Amino acid sequence: MPKKFLIISQVFPPDPAAVGQYFDEAAQALRAQGAQVTILTANRGYDDPDQQFEPREDRSGVQVRRLPASSFGKASMPVRIFGQLSFLLQCILRGLFQRGLTDLLVSTSPPMCGIVAVLIGWLRPSVKVHYWVMDLNPDQAVALEVFKPGHPLVKAMDWLNRRILNRANSVIALDRFMAERLRVKLAGKAAQPRIEVIPPWPMGQHAEALAHTDNSFRQAQGWDDKFVVMFSGNHSWVHPLGTILDAAEQLAGDPRFVFAFIGGGKGKAEVDERIAKWGQLAEGVARPAVVSLPYQPLEVIRYSLSAADLHLVSLGDNMGGIVHPCKVYGALAMARPVLTLGPKESYLNDILSEHPVGWSVAHGDVAGAVRALQEAADLSEEDWNAMGMRARKVVANQFKREELVQQFTDTVMGQR
To answer: pTM of the predicted model, to two decimals?
Structure first.
């Protein structure tokens, strides 16, 4: 009998959120292993709830079911929570009554998704539960000072985390710092689940970079003779960008630079506010060349990522092991150097300390960021290409997509 998987994720393509794209590729990999796969997701865009998707889709053999009243956008925390609760309630009901279910795969999108796994796992003990940890809450909310450590909701979510970790047949963390945080949550438990560390793999659309001369996206933006510094993806408060915006301001007189911020999220407001402020500068005063663009369609991402000369990856100082900005893998796969901003102890610096593929700057070190940007822009074409090729080799050797996908499917199929 083939395994019958139910996958739960509030976001899923064509929504551009990275979590949904990873679930799409994971579902296809499980399907290729002979499993039957059904995905429960929202019928509207997570970042843009005006986007509405078809309620049912057969996606190369993977059955997608998009649930109504499951996403109302990010206008406010109550709106987000209401959408999440509505989505989770529908998932619980469907999961309890799905015939022949053998495996349940959940992540941390939405943050309370663990309650689905706990309830279904408790009422259907024969079902194997797999927990793919993309980020950690309430840790993230506490680190952002949304809630204090002793808040009842924080205690409730910590309790829920311990329950799902105890119930899970497999647990997948994205880096060693995240795995250690999960172990701490279970400190003192006689038996702990085995935690597999599997980094996110580069997406399929990152398969081949485009030369600048062949890139219609770069040409359409008028960047032919520019050094493009790009942040692409979700602009969240957990990925602070203040240091790089301050550096852009100091480099306003250097005509080589363009700073491109592509995507959405709450943190995008800081970028747009800076652009508006610089637009009010007096005539003749140098203005930073900073561009804000929305999320690009999936079929365009290869072009937009290739348009960069240097990719930015930011991790908040207190976010190590809580979140894992996977955009670094896409940047490296596109043969582009990176500039990382964040704490010294992080998976980002694990990569950079071992491989000379970019620069690392601490948050608040604006002078250091300016120096790194100037050094990157001063590279000869030969040196820039060599650094890019080293970046691509890092992915090929250490974060090879096929091997990581296989490691993931072996884990959740019970072959590890």
So the answer is: 0.88
